[in-house]
Amino acid sequence: GENVEQHPSTLSVQEGDSAVIKCTYSDSASNYFPWYKQELGKRPQLIIDIRSNVGEKKDQRIAVTLNKTAKHFSLHITETQPEDSAVYFCAASPTARNTGGFKTIFGAGTRLFVKA
Amino acid sequence: SAVISQKPSRDICQRGTSLTIQCQVDSQVTMMFWYRQQPGQSLTLIATANQGSEATYESGFVIDKFPISRPNLTFSTLTVSNMSPEDSSIYLCSVGGSGTGLTDTQYFGPGTRLTVL
Predict the structure, then answer these.
(1) Helix or strand run (H / E) with residue A29
(2) Does the pLDDT of residue B99 top 60, yes or no?
(3) 3-state secondary structure of A96
């Protein structure tokens, strides 16, 4: 089955700096890669996702890159702000269109601290 | 995205008892899932709730311990049976796929925080 590894487990940056979180996956059938942000005591919230037919996607200060050959994808947050502090989870799954259903496997999470 | 609610939001239970958690969605969804998240940990899939048929369980989770119902496309329940302190965790409902289509994005309910004494 799919296995998703995520690094680093903890990341501390100064406000205004960039933060990068990296993930690798094992199942070549995976072609959908969402990222979730979870604030303390809250539910995971989808912040960005990418599909295997694109290599990069950007939404304001957040961008995700995908290298399907190497089976790794990364989350980039620029101009970090204290409210970006949270736990971020990467995930991988085969798309529903391919399997008639889908199962998302999550990475272990990265705790991001943005110091003001 | 769908609006997902869970009941109860939290509970404190005695060991040996059972608790049923409800998940309600405001629109029909194709897929419903149940996850467990232990403190400081990632999300672990317990099972996929299948409408009108038995749930599909992940390795390490069994129907006798975590019976699941899904009577329609907007509702599911997860029961944590014969609880022990090791079952203390947050249980999250997740949904994906809207209407008759199949989409990939999953959204999460607010979670149920369970403490077993």
Answers:
(1) none
(2) no
(3) helix
Average pLDDT over residues A19-31: 93
pLDDT range class, residue B101, cuts 50, 70, 90: very low
On whether any CB of chain B is under 8 Å from the CB of A34, the answer is: yes
The 3-state DSSP class for residue B105 equals coil
The answer to whether B25 and B75 are in contact (CB under 8 A) is yes
CB-based contact B41 A109, cutoff 8 Å: yes
Alpha carbon of A86: minimum distance to chain B alpha carbons (Å) = 12
Say if the Cβ atoms of B107 and A96 lie within 8 Å.
no
> What is the overall mean pLDDT for chain B?
91
Q: Is the pLDDT of residue A33 over 50?
A: yes
Nearest by Cα to B107 from B9, B23, B20, B7:
B23
B105 vs A45: CB contact, 8 Å cut-off? no
Instruction: Please give the average per-residue pLDDT across B19-41, as a whole number.
Output: 93
In angstroms, the separation between the Cα of residue A23 and the nearest Cα of chain B is 14
A106–chain B Cβ distance below 8 A for any pair:
yes
Beta-carbon contacts of residue B96 (< 8 Å; ≥ 6 apart): A96, A102, B29, B30, B31, B33, B103, B104, B105, B106, B107
